[in-house]
Design goal:
394 residues, mainly alpha, single chain, globular
């Protein structure tokens, strides 16, 4: 577990570099980034972009989370979230033990409704509520699936594992989110659901994106696409395929491959025209709005920050759009605004993210990096700026 939670990413990079007995210039050569970028990031005067953090992590042979400081244990303790993680871990570990004789599951209809409700609560960013309710639901769904053996029961169990992935990802437990995805695939196969299996590969690809392993992420997207070919044609398949293309676009953007990213965005846009707003299909938030939001994200990943800011100005988020997606978007916009010198608009974007999804925003590494960059800019900021930093724990 990272122990330097109070430091900025640049300080953690400097610490890891010194442990490896590397100079700043040697690290810049190994990571294929400029020497000035390394020095400015370590000094805290330049935010570390996800792509730079990934390059440095690979060069130093450390997990990305060691450099970002995740999970943020002090804040998790303050929010009484740390104690909710181990019960989820324990629930994930009993997947293959068969029915629990001490568990009397409710009807499949009730379990299915609860699983759907947790998916909705994740999108509403009620993370603590989901984390508290999840272990008992997993235990019930596990016993129900082993007892019934029906495709429907296994799919309900797969849905609970998907929520476990969502929660552990948002709270920074990368190891546990990988376990949740493995369990999701295990249940999806027994539920004979190629769409769930394909989406599991998509989520896995995003985990590799966060770990800055773009090559493996792209391979997983390809595998997910191939898995989806087994699904019945229709709106569900189109939405899942479109979301795959959006994930592939972000991976290509992070890998600085604009042509490929644009091709995936174009195909996602074509499918979104067919599906229309399809936010509740597997809770993917897919549709024309999500395509536009991902275009902003891709431009930021390509370091085309001015274009990202301009594109973001064209995006209007529906009031009914998932708070989790909207808050993530505002975090991305804030990052682009910082890089273009728009410090006050950047802070306003961070405030929007906090208002929409406080629990998610507090634990998002990009938000923390962006705030640190604003702090380093040392420009006149509102009185609420320092309060925001205290809330983040930076």
């Amino acid at each position: 577990m990272p122990s330097h939670f109070a430091e900025h990413t640049g300080a953690r990079i400097a610490h890891a570099r010194k442990v490896r007995r590397l100079t700043q210039r040697e690290l810049s050569e190994l990571a294929n980034i400029s020497y000035s970028t390394v020095t400015k990031i370590e000094q805290g005067v330049m935010p570390a972009s996800p792509s730079v953090i990934g390059s440095v992590a690979r060069a130093l042979s450390v997990p990305v989370t060691e450099l970002t400081g995740q999970p943020y244990l002090e804040e998790l303790r303050q929010d009484q979230l740390d104690g909710l993680i181990n019960p989820i871990r324990e629930a994930l570990n009993v997947y293959d033990l068969g029915p629990d004789p001490d568990v009397a599951p409710r009807s499949l209809e009730d379990l299915e409704a609860d699983a759907e409700n947790l998916c909705a609560l994740v999108r509403a960013t009620n993370i603590k509520q989901v984390a508290a309710a999840l272990p008992s639901l997993i235990h019930e769904a596990t016993t129900a699936a082993h007892t019934s053996g029906s495709d429907r029961a296994w799919r309900v169990l797969a849905s609970t594992y998907r929520s476990a992935y969502d929660v552990t990802t948002k709270l920074g437990y990368a190891d546990l989110c990988t376990v949740a995805l493995d369990r999701m695939e295990w249940a999806a196969q027994r539920g004979s659901d190629p769409v769930l299996s394909g989406l599991r590969q998509y989520m896995r690809a995003l985990a590799y994106l966060r770990a800055s392993d773009y090559r493996t992420g792209k391979r997983l997207i390809s595998l997910g696409m191939a898995t989806l070919e087994q699904a019945e044609p229709g709106r569900v398949l189109d939405a899942a395929t479109g979301q795959m293309h959006l994930g592939a676009a972000v991976l290509a953007g992070r890998d600085q491959d604009r042509d490929t990213a644009e091709a995936h965005l174009a195909e996602a846009g074509r499918l979104a025209e067919i599906t229309g707003p399809a936010e509740k299909i597997h809770w993917l938030s897919f549709g024309p709005t999500n395509v536009r939001v991902h275009r902003v994200s891709v431009l930021a990943e390509l370091d085309l920050y001015q274009e990202a800011v301009e594109e973001a100005a064209k995006v209007t988020l529906p009031d009914t759009w998932a708070r989790s997606r909207a808050a993530h978007h505002y975090g991305e916009v804030a990052r682009a605004q910082v890089w273009t010198g728009k410090t006050e608009p950047a802070f306003k974007s961070l405030q929007k993210a906090r208002k929409l999804a406080p629990q998610q925003t507090r634990y998002h590494p990009t938000v923390r990096e962006t705030y640190a960059a604003l702090d380093a800019a040392r420009r006149r900021m509102p009185d609420t700026f320092s309060n925001y930093g205290s809330w983040l724990g930076v």
